[in-house]
Design a protein that fits this description.
The protein is built from ten helices and twelve strands. It is α/β, with parallel strands linked by helices. A seven-stranded parallel sheet has the order 8-7-6-9-10-11-12. A five-stranded parallel sheet has the order 2-1-3-4-5.
């Protein structure tokens, strides 16, 4: 078995994978690879997949699989899968860090204090007693919800695939979920149905001026609508780790020039601990594939 590591994984993974066969991170040596390991950087388009005529298994280290042409994989008989158990804690901690830092004005206090300014008149806002609405309530959202509840927040969510959830009020529609929210946290996969689901219409449904955090998928957000809502005072703040096109380009993505925005470079899954968990789940997946437990 030839395993091609296309993107960045934990440095110890190649040695661990060597029990399955040859391992390489050089594309020139990987044309006959049986297994390809990717993260978010590599785009497994039809053309990319066709460049590896022997590939039988593609593993996405992480959760989202919108960078893999899964329909074409099905046509070719290629198994395309991910590591859904690994990244929940890492992404949830980033989402909650953004939720916590925004009302506490941490960036503002840091910048002004370093300039010699003493901005004590600028008040902070507590999370306690506030309402957070989750759009999508899978593993990551539930991890964030656990932290929110610990801070005394009320939790509600919209997820068409979830029928019951402990300590969370499920809403029938996405509009109902955001209606009275102080915070909105996005954890949706990207599909035609969720394309720009956070748009001008949904923002108009918000009775408050919420803080929005997106650690899900960039294309689930209408970035132009968000920037306009920030200008119009309909949103308090917008935080994002993901973008419609990555990396976002100055002059093209309006978020980069907007005020009351906190941005990070798609680092939700990038913790040392998570890379180790991803590696372990990759190994588990290959073992199951070899035993024909996943086909």
């Amino acid at each position: 078995m030839l395993i091609y590591i296309s993107d960045a994984f934990d440095a110890s993974l190649p040695e661990k994978l060597s029990v399955f066969g040859e391992v390489t991170n050089e594309e020139a040596k990987a044309k006959m690879a049986d297994v390809i390991l990717i993260r978010s950087k590599t785009k497994c388009t039809k053309e990319y997949i066709d460049a590896f005529p022997n590939v039988k298994l593609i593993i996405r280290g992480g959760v989202g699989m919108d960078n893999i042409d899964r329909e074409y994989c099905k046509e070719k008989g290629i198994v395309a899968t991910n590591t859904p158990k690994s990244s929940s804690i890492a992404v949830a901690e980033l989402a909650f860090a953004l939720m916590l830092s925004t009302p506490n004005n941490l960036c503002f206090y840091d910048n002004t204090t370093k300039k010699g300014e003493w901005q004590k008149k600028v008040k902070r806002t507590e999370l306690n007693g506030k309402t957070v609405a989750f759009l999508g309530f899978g593993n990551i959202a539930r991890q964030v919800a656990t932290r929110a509840i610990a801070f005394g927040m009320k939790v509600q969510a919209y997820d068409k695939y979830v029928t019951s959830a402990e300590n969370c009020e499920l809403k029938a529609t996405v509009e109902e979920a955001v209606k009275d929210a102080d915070y909105i946290s996005l954890h949706l996969p990207y599909t035609p149905e969720t394309d720009k689901i956070l748009n001008a219409h949904l923002i108009e449904c918000c009775e408050k001026k919420p803080v929005i955090i997106n650690t899900g998928r960039g294309k689930c957000v209408d970035e132009d609508a968000v920037v306009q809502a920030l200008k119009d005072g309909k949103l308090a703040w917008f935080c994002s780790d993901v973008y419609s096109e990555e990396p976002p380009q100055l002059g093209k993505n309006p978020l980069l020039a907007a005020e009351r925005v906190t941005l990070t470079p798609h680092v939700g899954a990038n913790t040392n601990e998570n890379l180790l968990r991803i590696g372990a789940e990759v190994i588990e997946t290959i073992e199951k594939y070899k035993k024909e437990e996943i086909i």
